[in-house]
Records
---
Amino acid sequence: MTTNTILLIILSVIVAAGLSYFQYYYKARSKSKINLLLAFLRFSAIFGLLLLLINPIITSNTTVVEKPTLALVVDNSSSVAYLKSDKLATELYLKIATNAALKEKYTVQSFQFDSDFLPFQQLDFKGTQTHVDAVAKDLKAINKNSTFPTVLISDGNQTSGNDYVYSFDTSNKVFPIILGDTTQVLDLKINQLNVNKYAFLKNQFPVEVFLQYSGTKSITADFKISQGNSVLSKQKVSFSPTKNTAVVNVLLTANKIGSQLYKATLISTEKEKNSYNNTKNFAVEVLDQKSTVAIVSAINHPDIAALKRAIESNAQRKVVVVNPKQINQLTDYNVLVLYQPTAEFKAVFDSNKLDKINTFIITGTHTDFNFLNQQQSNLEFKMTTQKEDYLAAFNSQFNLFAIDDIGFENFPPLQNPYGKINVKGNTSVLLSSKIRNIDTQAPLLAFSENQGTRAAYLLGENSWKWRLESHNQNDSFEKYDIFIDKIIQFLASNNAKKSLVVNHESFYNSGEAIEITAQYFNKNYEFDEKAHLTITLVNAKIKASKSYDLLKGNNAYKVNLDGLSAGSYNFRIKELNSKASYSSHFEILDFDIEKQFVNPDVVRLKQLASLTQGKVYFPNQVDSLIQSLLEDENYKTIEKTNSSRSPLVDWKWLLVLICSFFAIEWFVRKYHGLL
């Protein structure tokens, strides 16, 4: 409190006392004991009012004792149970968490983790994933800007997330207690299997398998891949204490359409402690998307060769170059590329009116535009005999399919007769044309879709220069070839926009998150936020069914189906208002990643302890750990004094007292007839 404030308070006392004396003694006719009470009440009320006007700042100090934090984290994943350390883990936790000396020195924070990091509840060791990386991130968030030790009771075998060794804060010591038998035993293991999720019918697809061996002698094992009762590949693999890994590459042939299940197995005559990790199931979705493209042309031009090479860069495409007078059965082709059509193409157009094969029409200086106007209604051409060079301008609002700007505006111009082109019907423009820097408001590359039939129009010849320029810019034809492939993909498919679009995998590993998302669109193809979507799930083997509602997210409806057992499942998603539905299936492969381990990961736990200046302990050394934590001088109790300042005007009770003094004074005077 400042000197000025003290002087003002003293002055307030003098003023209040003076006014009270003047009222009840100096002016008073009689000097009874009642006057003394009234003078006190008047003094208290006036002094309180003056204090409120002065409004002094009241400072109060409180002492707070802050203990250092001790984070006690227990691994609740099923791998701990498989290593027969679940009871031991519980005992270790209780011994540390209930230690009176530790509780006296530290504020003990107890947590458990498997796929998620949670406050300690109850250990059941049924977690299907081990995410040690989450422990590091969440402890940092909880104890931000503080230094604390962490006791990590775990086997160290992580199955998801980033490498936890480098995730923990190096300024906070970590003390791992290693669970599980560290004695090295003979073990063969399929460590990792890499395969594409999709393959095309009659094509070969690669399977890459990483094998691992733990043992003290040299052995030979058989590695095979089978499907049902058929063995598709088999080979011998040798291991030794120094050669403890092997990589096997196998090419398999996709012979059937649909989800195909395979089993990879590593077998030896040696007895193993854990044989579960010798087998790994995997699946591949086999698709039949082979398409044949006919380039129909009556002239020779470099564009034709460039188109053929770009289209056939996708192994699923086959290109046939044919003269319009020689083409017979249009149904042999998935897409017709009509290069600079003239009256010679009349038979092709007439046949296609019945067959409805999607077309890619490319015009140029040899095109008969009067004939073309008669054969299609998407574009109207009013052309002259004058030739013109047209540059491309990319339309970023194009939304028929996803495509990137590969530098179209830097490509050489295409040549086409000069004239006016009117867009009609349901036509979308990807590239518009420019003459030098002047926008012509006319399309250069456009797409249309009418009554299930699709068409594309490239209005200019010499697109072979585009492919060459793309190579000059990127040292590869890849970007241009992908651009052409997306056009062919659009034309090779007749899938119209669906009101209900569902995304899911064809197969999942047991223990993985199984999330199915769906989008429902109204008639304007806008995401409907008021849709009511349900899913009915049926186990294909036992025919048991369950139904769930899909929950709305930001731009999709979702359902989480975690916890399902291995097997085949059929499902149907239905929108209850419109009755729109989608049916499909998926497979859950029998693969428990937590059963893959025979030993704790001692190496990485030691690395973690070393990087954080901590120390690794084994279960029989827990007393030493407790003693070390108690003696560590880096973690001390801190006393803090918190000072709070509050103005007197905030004291509401003072105002109540002032009013009370005035009220009591008035009643006393009234009672004694002094008013």
---
Amino acid sequence: MNKIVTEKAPHQSPGRVDFAMQGEIAVLTIDNPPVNAGSHAVRKGIVEGIQAAQAAGASGAVLIGAGRCFVAGSDLREFGKPLVWPELPDVIAALEQAPFPVVAALHGVALGGGLELSLGCDYRIAAPATEVGLPEVSLGFVPGAGGTQRLPRLVGRSLAIDLICRAARIPATRAHDIGLVDALAEGDLQEAAIAFLKERPPKRIARNLTPPNEPDEVIEAAAAAALRRGKGRPNVAEAIRLVKASAGDAQAALADERAVFQELRLSADAVALRYLFFAERKAASVDGLDMSAARAVTSVAVIGGGTMGQGIVRSFLTAGLPVVLIERDETALAASMAKIAENLEDQVLKGRLDTETADARKAALSGAVDYSALSGCDLVIEAVFEEMSVKKDVLNRLEAVLSPEAIIATNTSYLDIDEMAADLAHPERVLGLHFFSPADIMKLLEVVRAEATSDAVLATGLKLARKLGKQPVVARVGEGFIGNRIYAAYRRRAELLVLDGASPQAVDAAAASFGFAMGPFAVSDMSGLDIAWAMRKRQAATRDPKARYVTIPDKLCEAGRLGRKTGKGWYDYASGKAQPDPDVADLIEVARAEAGVTARGFDTQTIQRQLLAAIVNEAACLLDEGIAQRASDVDVALTNGYGFPRWRGGPLYWAYQQNRAALRADLGALAEAVGPGHRAGPVDGILDQIEIPQEG
């Protein structure tokens, strides 16, 4: 076997392509561990491999990946630098110009430039477990090597718009159904690809195909949905425009696509999203932690079958783990089990699950009211009422029945895990796994390292997060950990803005126009005002009596206005939608009078910058205390769990981009508004930790 590429220039990424002849079929094997990123060396190796195949008189060629996947995408480290020949379109041109058909043999994943590379081949054969997708829109740009042109010519424009703009990953079985993959290989993938070529299929160049006919209204509906979901970001609009252009001249559209890609890959959105891409991978690690110490988790249990417990159960079932659900009595257990089954059936009705998968998940779930049912579990997570005495009782009961190696996790949102585990004989087995509701949907998982948590248990928590498809962020013990502590400061600033003269709807509108998924008061209504109310009552004894305290949310709770679940909160939901309520406006006026506040106006920018200042300041405080390991972890937490707009990179990345004098002025205004008890975080020092992807 020959190695087509072995050299590595200083500006190049590593990798090689191995060339071999299997009879009259050339086999080009991409070898760039761990995920075969499409580096310059790989691209050059493919071009030279095709040339070697022609010289050897090959009748066809197979392009396959070594190791665990085909190609997981282009090397993002190259994206901020000038690209050098051969770029990916040059590689695809070589595949199309080859006098013989080329088959892409896909396994693991084929994503981004990897999928575009396969689209440049004549045919695609995939192992059934393969996943394919074009994630470029989620990174701030558009596919730049024909993805917006070849994909719609195979699957249709409306479906291509949806897949590209959602940055969707779909299984090979689905890709086969829609015509993206030509065949599924049940046995040896390389042998299947060679056998396919021995049938002498003709050249079939995707760029020369005509997209399937579709009604214009279907395409426009897909475009409107994608633009709405993508919040009108420029790259989403451009992706839609380019896919629509696939009905015309391919050469012109491909040139247009490449020009748009080259412009957008250096845009502010793309740089921020690349920062976040690397930050998310870093957040899944702890400096100095030996991940090889992680234990196997093959069976789990959940204590508490409420809304959060049910979501955690569904998350484990989705990951293929058998689950035992423990409830306080048979009635509560039956109700929780029925709701989980109902959710699975609903997913089948909506086409998100097939019946076989849903039935398998139901079979993997068992329920009990006796803790003795947990004896064989590797990990148990409690999701009971947020009360220290209740949680301590649960943990003590768990220690009595679990094996010494079993891990005990708590889903607490705020409470001190060190105190929770203080009475245990083996507190080193305890950690926090803080899910976000709905637990099977939300990506963020705070993995909380208590004082006694062992390295092996922490490593196991991080490994489990990946198995669950979650984005982990490691936190130390502290009130609210990372996310809820910052969000509490954000919510307090929002409430002070209302006390000082802004309306709840003006604050929510300002947050939404900045890019938050929802404003703080709409979020409170959705999650329930009683959650934060319980926290405030718990903290009342230690609150600084001189601190400015906003009584408005307490008065709402006392009036039974707990949010959407009671039909009224900050807003009225009688119509089914959030509507301003005169009763709330009256209540706010009373609170202002009691506090001696004369209302004043706030413009949108001031509201936005004060909300951001509260977030940035609290983030600096908790980083200074060691609650979070690194500044970028805060950005990962806020973008994955709290609706912070991803294209802004996260709050600390955003702050890094701001004029420092203007930011200090915002922080000064924050301190003045909060008043006694305010702590100014070391923002300048924290922002110096931000590592921006190198551009140009």
---
Amino acid sequence: MSAEATNPEARPEARPELRRRGRTRLDLRRLGRAALLGPTSRDRLPDAIGHVAEAHRAHHPDADLSLLRRAYVLAESSHRGQMRKSGEPYITHPLAVTLILAELGAETTTLTASLLHDTVEDTEVTLDQVRAEFGDEVAFIVDGVTKVEKIDYGAAAEPETFRKMLVATGNDVRVMSIKLADRLHNMRTLGVMRPEKQARIAKVTRDVLIPLAERLGVQALKTELEDLVFAILHPEEYEHTRALIAAHAGESDPLPAIADSVRGVLREAGIAAEVVVRPRHFVSVHRISRTRGELRGSDFGRVLVLVGENADCYAVLGELHTCFTPVVSEFKDFVAAPKFNLYQSLHTAVATPEGYVAEVIVRTRQMHRVAEAGVVALGNPYATAPADPGSPADPADCDEERVDPTRPGWLSRLLDWQQSAPDPDTFWSVLRAELAQDREITVFRADGGAPGTISLPAGASCIDAAYAQYGEAAHGCIGARVNGRLTSLSSRLSDGDTVQLLLAQDASSGPAADWLEHAKTPAARIAIGSWLQAHPDSANPTTTPARAPLSVVGARGGGGNAVVDLPDATVRLAGCCTPVPPDAVAGFVVRGGAVTVHRIHCASVAQMRALGRTSVAVHWRATADCRVTLLAESFGRPHLLADLTEAIAREGVEVVSATVEPPVEQRVRHTYTLQLPDATGLPALMRAMRDVPGVYDVRRA
């Protein structure tokens, strides 16, 4: 998703869309010691919490601020005497983090935990003290963001800290909200660090924190983190982008005039809407410049239209496409189909008479809040009943595992596979690979089991679906049906596919080594790797020459019961459709004067007619016997051919020929040509063959 925050040089005071309740939004990017300390001295901060209180009341007018004040007193007293490397009192850091979250609309419990988030880690305050003073919920969040002891974990401390934090996030997403705000403030003040340490922290931010911010929908934090990382890791490209933006600032900007035209169109249509220009941030401008080459004035920002209701979004879209020339390829509907990180908006682009192309985003004000703040805008998704505004949830609720109805599929998958990660290095590398997947698909289970859907990363295969549905039992998966059609396990899935997974009955079955080439999810890759490591002989099977199909052939007939109106002609039943009485059939003369008989709906009939083959009338003899070819697909197991042949014999059917192909992915395909004494017995024969253990499909050739 393209980010939409302003660039670091923009002045929020000049942007009317950021005004709320008559108050100008505080500039988060310029928050510093002066904003926190005011005119007072460094060792006295009596009014510092006022900035947080003001921002919090803007979103929650009835919030009880007493909890925040008590948290501030504990944080300030416990951090007293500690200094940051920048020379500021340490208390400025939890205050800045809390102010970031307050500006995003976080509720009181989150802000309380944010003020205290470093007390257990860096001071003498214990988690029990926090729990006794502020309740279990605040203590849970504080514990979730507290780093593990490096003395205990050594080099594994950082990955284990993230593992601990992500597990806590699975129970309460507010843990990660605080971590993201914490990293943002640390990135803002990273200039006091050595260049190599700046680069190391920036890389972790790029690989882990920014993808997490994207997945949790916290775009306001994600976009600034992207710019800060961009400046550290790519200084030359950053300076080039800065120069582009600076050069644009001195030119005529067409976007305000386009926004005025949009306002006029919507005013005439009677649609109440707020129309503003959103400048692109640095990384967004850099991406656009790489794809479009030379930038025009309208490329440095987008027009944002805010309305009241969902229906108004489509009304605005209709007016825009009526009064301007739409760029059809740029239209995306994330209102009807939200992104996996809760994002909703309509995206389009319109061309003006002057030749400019302007991107336009249309959303409701609630969508805008969620687009900016993501999960932070949800408040407390774990509250079981409405509580007093701004008050924390009942601590008793924290004793049970919390179920977040908004928990996305990627987080559930992450919580599952991290339990199987054998060591911190594997967890760390797999986590980065997992977070690099930026799109998701949803597939449906054909068996109707719960849950009815499976969330997977884009590009996932049937192997991934098998492990997501069955866990380690997927070791015995030998095939799948996708949208009703049999396919290999390596087949990639698309959004909306229906998947039926086929498991072998042999409990000793295991995955093939090449499954790792097609598995995309960490859960599948870790499970397959563990099995192969435990069964080294299976991972490197002895190479054997390919076997030819096994065939059992009896006397072959010709036209069976088919009679054609062509004396002395040789009659053949077509192998492509294997007609039997009482199928409607058609005959065609082929080379050598023979007549081939097809079912009337066979695709070959149209081809014969197109080739100008002579059509011959065909009818069935009065006798009821017939010949038919059946395909049987099954799991591989001993004695299967004998069991199938016995089942056929019990139905009184003669086997004319039988072919068994070599197993592929533990699946075996049988082809039988059979002579039936009565064509009406064909359905019963096919049912009897399907009832043989291991057989999962029988159909006519």
---
Amino acid sequence: MATFLYKLGRLSFRRRHFVALIWVALLTLAGVGAAGAPTAGNSSFSIPGTEAQKAFDLLEQRFPGTSADGATARVVFKAPSGEKMTDPGNKATVRDTVRELSDGSDVVRVTDPYRAKAVSKDGTIAYAQVSYKVSGMELDDAAKDALKDTAQDAREAGLTVEIGGDALQAVPHTGSSEVIGIAVAAVVLVITFGSLVAAGLPLLTALIGVGIGVSTITGLASALDLGSTTSILAMMIGLAVGIDYALFIVSRYRAELAEGREREEAAGRAVGTAGSAVVFAGLTVVIALVGLSVVNIPMLTKMGIAAAGTVAIAVLIALTMIPALLGYAGRKVRPMGEKGKLLGRAKKKDQPAKPNLGTRWASFVVRRPVAVLLLGVIGLGAAAVPATSLELGLPDDGSQPTSTTQRRAYDLLSEGFGPGFNGPLMVVVDAKGSDDAKAVFAETREEIKGLKDVVTVTPAQPNKAGDTATITVIPGSKPSSVTTENLVHGIRDAGAGIKADTGANVLVTGSTAMNIDVSEKLNDALVPYLVLVVGLAFLLLIVVFRSILVPLKAALGFLLSVMAALGAVVAVFQWGWLSGLMGVEQTGPVMSMMPIFMVGVVFGLAMDYEVFLVTRMREAYVHGEKPAQAVVTGFRHGARVVTAAAVIMMAVFAGFIGSSESMVKMIGFGLATAVFFDAFIVRMAIVPAVLALLGRKAWWLPKWLDRALPNVDVEGEGLRAGSGDDDGDRELVRV
């Protein structure tokens, strides 16, 4: 591999005009496609194989034209102090509002609060429910504006009016903090390279790669049903890995220049060595992201594949565009050790070299491996403690900021009708195979009324054929509570008994039941996903490191990182610690897909640092150094660059904490925290401590396996052997 990448690097350096033209053309093509594509909305959500989804599918068949998956809006009215919604003036205002709402072209029906008995017992709060033909993703701005304007008319008549439901779902935005993250990355690059030109190369290539990836996603959003969140997450991960991969190749290029090589040769060797590590690091990220498809939730699968595609583009750009830009930069990118006027001059040749910080730290860890190992493990264990009280759920209007009309509508409904009213359960009774469908409907209703935490059970509403009916159940607890979850399972258990007696199927659906099914599906998929992703990456790392214990140690270190990061997420987003600082206005359950998504992304990123740092150590070891000294050598060459890469990645992820989308905010915080734990505690402390304790055993590999494994030559031994250079007395810098 190293030889092929070496040739690719030299070719890209020589044919830089052609390479640059190709990437600019791809960026232009993707941009034009994105500009002409419809705006992405919120991706449609389905969870194949779950009871809630089966019920939705059944409703589409047995109740055609009812738009079971269409958008809904609850327009909530509250009378002024001292008045009631049943007063003639307020009643007239509400009916005028209902009449205006019914005029929309996408509106299927609007319920009259007074006919539907949707007025609270004290008479102060009422609501009208608006059902649309299309989903919230497909609802156009004109329909949303009409909804808002009608509500405003009722406000001007003296009522308090708020709108809940999914009809007003907005496309998330990231805010200015994303730009701040990129600015921090730029500062770190300038400090690392001491040159504006060298610092600008990783930023430029990362932005080109993300531009191509995100523009492609935007262009295909309508055809493939890719939500706006998909492009934001692809941007987040693509920026982080794009900058890091380019950083490692540019750093290696400067090291090769310091060895006295010509610029084209240095570019080839940089791509052949550091590029090999980039390929394998990128493969681990792609494996982890594509592996999300095993969960069988289409939205999560699309997010993973889209982000994996952006990572693949980042790898290709790093291997081709970076050497091309190095050719354009010429002498403006200086050898390692030389600094321009920006950050001062390099040390004089006769000045003795002082051990850098990485060398000093590694030497300390090698001398005190047990203490460092215990301190690191105990620290991460303490950070992971909050994860033991992890509660999972999907966001509803109750998780919105109190400044939004959706949240205010949620609170008004809770005040007037009870907390469970915001999470009604829809029970679908399929009595097609029963002798007496009406009796089955009545029996089901009576069974549900006898369960705990049930406030209201509506009469069965059969379809035209009379073989299927819907029953609405209002729980006594809020949608995200454990009590409501137990009620869903209780209804399903009762349905199993009804099926045994009558042959009728009883299915529970609705947003609350859907959330519960998603959480359970994700929990069930977590272990198989871990086995698949960690297993594949473990095999890949055996090939890279030619060791059994090093990949095993890498996987165990990752588990520590991800558990500690999940603990931090629980502490902030569920417990409310530092929530004001993070812009979290409402605490609550952690997003259901957060753990499995974090596992996938963090594992891929963690292996990046493992590959870049430990390959330095392995190179030193195979060149004859003792195991402890090889650890120090690896840190001397790799610690500074890995530290810079980690800080950049943290800055990019942290930049997405300013997103208006709670899922993006949570993932940005979780990934930034996980990178901190993994890079600075696991890779910089626990890894060298474990390698120092294992000694030569760390690099042990059975001979039969050594013969069976392909030689991928990450260290570039083939380049060294075939170059004709006399490197016998020269230490070769590896990545």
